[in-house]
Design a protein that fits this description.
Number of strands: 21
Strand order of the largest sheet: 4-3-5-6-7-8-9-14-13
Number of helices: 12
Number of domains: 2
Bound molecules: 5'-O-[hydroxy(phenylacetyl)phosphoryl]adenosine
Oligomer: single chain
Length: 436
């Protein structure tokens, strides 16, 4: 279902005109209210009137996460705190979190883009949705919650964690939709299987999965245990939270960006704009945000854009599944690799469980990679008690090594762990561990 055909099926010409008008308004708004942007725009000699077409976007300086940190907590807000209805923050694993704010109007924009995204993913008013993203400062829980209520769904605000209770709720309440990270979805599905719960009888229809990189291979594994259509959901706190882009359930080939609110570009590491179809870093400009507008925000996420209209009827540009974050790319003995590429290669090995962890050891100057994996359930059962010195374990180790060499030209140390020892995720999975 297209939630807002008026906005989601505009012609390119109409959309471009709308984007330009909104960009100018946001430039005006921000330069009047935020000292940081006033100075940055003045230094770049950018005035709203001087932006004549979207090509002029490139004259606007980039914004990066460090700018938000430097103005912690509220220094980049365009309105007095009394006009901010809600605060969220990113996890901030390295130091202070990034704080974001929403006016009443921003919350309405968020509901709108999320309602479009939920509808694109298969949600319909009257259905039940279990939200197993974390509630709190993270934008996942409340972002889905507010929009689901707004569009007329019945919300089960389960929040993250507590896998057994999630399963009980899925069995007893029978929601059609499940929203959580893909790694948690897999964990829920596998736990059900272990509990002897038949997921095919639950009535689940679609899963709204995002907040972390994942792969087509993981999508297949999740669909096989949960019996639903798994849809990729993208967003980030600095721009709004979830609701920036989503796959349509019909086609699931790229994520439709809500372009009338978020203007996308792709740039190379030096910040030079790249043409459609070329892979690079996604840069986003907010076109309607009041409390925390962002100009050319460097997301760090690697993808490409496809402007071809989609069979679903939406005309908005589609971005490819995120490959990873620029700062998560590993350089191992001259080979550049994203954790998601390792995931794709590992999940194609039948005899492995779909769980892995990458350990990067930097204690000896050049980084060394260890790939930790587990045998698949049925393999582990055949083996009986786990013995790491058993020839079958060595054979599996070789198989995995061959696979990574063939697919990625990587030659890491493979560690076959005992079944069910790699940590399972109830939120954003930790795929890479750094040893320094
Ligand atoms: O993760 C917002 C969100 C919540 C999106 C629920 C989808 C569902 P942050 O905590 O600020 O916000 O993290 C944003 O997570 O820059 C990406 O690196 C990553 N990310 C988000 N969605 C995807 C996805 C939320 N579908 C950061 N695929 C982003 C890959 C994703 N990475």
């Amino acid at each position: 279902m297209i939630w807002n055909p008026g906005a989601e099926t505009l012609s390119r010409k109409e959309l471009t005109a709308l984007q330009l008008e909104r960009l100018r308004t946001t430039l005006q708004w921000a330069s009047e209210r935020i000292a940081f942007y006033r100075e940055a725009l003045a230094a770049a000699r950018v005035t709203p009137e001087s932006i004549r077409s979207l090509d002029d976007l490139q004259r606007i300086p980039f914004t990066v996460k460090a700018h938000l940190r430097e103005h912690y907590p509220f220094g980049l807000f365009a309105v007095p705190l009394a006009q901010v209805s809600r605060i969220h923050a990113s996890s901030g694993t390295r130091g202070k979190p990034t704080v974001v704010g929403y006016t009443k109007n921003d919350l309405q924009v968020w509901r709108e883009v999320m309602a479009r995204s939920l509808a694109a993913a298969g949600a319909e008013p009257g259905q039940l949705i279990q939200i197993a993203y974390g509630y709190g400062l993270f934008t996942g829980g409340l972002g889905f919650h507010d929009a689901a209520e707004y569009m007329g769904l019945t919300v089960v605000p389960a929040s993250s964690g507590n896998t057994l209770r999630q399963i009980m709720l899925l069995q007893d309440f029978r929601p059609q939709g499940l929203a959580c990270t893909p790694s948690f979805a897999l964990h829920i599905g596998e736990s059900m299987r272990e509990q002897g719960v038949d997921a095919s009888t639950l009535g689940l229809r679609y899963g709204l999965f995002g907040a972390e990189p994942w792969t087509e291979e993981l999508r297949h594994k999740i669909e096989a245990v949960l019996f639903l259509t798994a849809v990729d959901f993208y967003g980030l706190s600095e721009i709004i939270g979830p609701g920036v882009a989503v796959e349509c359930a019909e086609v699931r080939s790229g994520l439709h960006i809500n372009e009338d609110h978020f203007l996308p570009e792709i740039v190379d590491t030096a910040g030079k704009a790249l043409p459609p179809g070329t892979e690079g870093e996604l840069v986003l400009t907010t076109l309607t945000k009041e409390a925390l507008p962002a100009f050319r925000y460097r997301t760090g996420d690697v993808t490409s854009l496809n402007p071809e209209p989609c069979k679903c009827g939406r005309t908005t540009v589609r971005m490819a599944r995120i490959k990873g974050r620029t700062d998560d790319m590993l350089i191992i003995k001259g080979v550049n690799v994203y954790p998601s590429q390792v995931e794709a290669a590992l999940l194609a090995v039948e005899d492995l469980a779909p769980h892995y962890q990458l350990v990067v050891d930097r204690t000896h100057g050049f980084p060394n990679l260890e790939v930790h994996v587990e045998p698949a359930e049925r393999v582990a059962q055949r083996w009986g008690r786990f013995d790491p010195t058993h020839p079958e374990v060595a054979a599996l180790r070789h198989k995995v090594g061959d696979r990574l060499r063939a697919a990625l030209a990587l030659n890491p140390e493979i560690v076959i762990e005992a079944p069910r020892t790699i940590p399972r995720s109830e939120g954003k999975a930790v795929r890479v561990i750094e040893r320094k």
